[in-house]
Design goal:
The chain is flat and about 85 Å long. It is an alpha+beta fold. It contains eleven helices and 16 strands. Helix content is 40%, strand content 25%. The strands form two sheets. Strands 6, 7, 8, 9, 10, 11, 12, 13, 14, 15 and 16 form an eleven-stranded mixed beta sheet that branches. A five-stranded mixed beta sheet has the order 1-2-5-3-4.
Amino acid sequence: MSRLGLRLHADEEHWIPLSDLMTGLMFLFLLIALAYMVAVEHQKNQPKNVALQYAQTRAALGGEIDKTFATDFARWGAQFDPNTLTVRFTNKQALFATGSAELQPRFKAILDRFFPRYLSVLTQPKYRDLISEVRIEGYTSSLWKPGASLDQSYIGNMQLSQDRTRSVLAYVMGLPATQPHKDWLMDVLTANGLSFSHLIRNPDGSEDAAASQRVEFRVRTNASAPIGQILAAQNLAPTVAATPSLPYPAWSAAMIGTSLRTLYPNVTTNCLGYLDGVAAKYAGGRGAQLHGWGYDTAANAPVERVLFADDRGIVRGAADGGGQRFDVPQTLPQVRSETTGWQGYVSVTSRPVQAWGIMRAPATVCRFPPASESGGESM
């Protein structure tokens, strides 16, 4: 009996450490699971964090440029667009003589004051690596020699605008303040003559010849394309959402169900943009959320409102513009805004739906084709 008692006691001593081991393994597996969940959540939030950090740094750059020259731009005949990080010099009399690429003394004096301070902002460590290109862009009006054809005017003005931007480039590269940064500038500073490809227009759509003759300094940032791809990828997979009714923009309420051509009889091709696709489909087959981007090339401005119409021209939905699309100006330099994105709602229909941007010109719309051209989206 005593031997049996000893044997039982020995078995108990064997099982107690084994149970402790199992408990330890359970805690280990729990820690691994928690670590995996944290890693997944971090990966999920990483694109948003990158996009936010990029947007904040870019906005800070724009704010610093604006603050640095707040009291100078009006005096120089210049404007600053923080959305495109563009400084625009439009005082024709101060820039060049008519038909000449030689800098006027007054413009040289402006560049003496502008470029060193501009460079001191751009070359700060927090901005320097953000910048992929600093573009000197030259533009002309459509005017050329009397009797010249449109082609001759475009080619002649292209040569003139290129000569002018090279003159500006040569002048700023020779400034004393430029010398410590020459290596960096040779990597990013470019001269781009663009003829009259981006005319400035009056409210009635006519050409503003004086304002069109201008020189611009424009910063392009190297994070636009990857950020745009990250944000676009997040919207590619349609999700199913439940909503009691489609939240059409308030301005479109009276347009739903009416004829697009009655509302907007004029159609133009002066636009860029696409209907990218379906961002979400709504439970119960009520409709879908569509997204894309649009730019009014005549007004050089993003499209603020979009209508969706079926192939019979009946308005089935609407969208508001103003969304961030960092990728668009990175791919298309003629698009001078990073807020060309739009997103809106369309009711269910068995007929193909097309997207139409409302232009700045009165009673005018422009079609945005599907990114994969097939005639339209069917809901």
